Amino acid sequence: MELITPGIGLIFWQLMTILSIPCFMVAWLLVLFTNKLNPDQKIVWLVSTLFLPVIGPLIFFVKYPFFKKANA
């Protein structure tokens, strides 16, 4: 019986999927439950993270760093 191993491309795409789903979910929760964004901005961020599921949340986290330290 021969051992079948996945290629590096398959491993890369599985890793990207596993990492992007929690990032996407956290971005949506932050957008929905924050008071720092007005409703128009919330809709724009929800749509952008929906249609750009990997890049959209990353841009959101860079633009709105909610996890800043209080003293910083």
Can you describe what's shown?
It contains three helices and no strands. It has helices at 8-33, 39-51, 55-63. With 72 residues, it is mainly alpha-helical. The chain has a domain at 24-32 and 39-59.
The major β-sheet equals: none
State the total count of DSSP E strands. Answer: 0
Mean pLDDT value: 84
The computed structural class is mainly alpha
Query: What is the H/E string?
Result: HHH
What portion of residues is helical? Answer: 55-70%
Indicate the low-confidence ranges by residue numbers.
none
In DSSP terms, counting alpha (H) and pi (I) runs of 4 or more, how many helices? 3
Query: How far do the termini sit from each other?
Result: 59 Å
Shape: elongated
Strand content: under 5%
Q: Give me the Rg, rounded.
A: 17 Å
Determine the oligomeric state from the structure. single chain
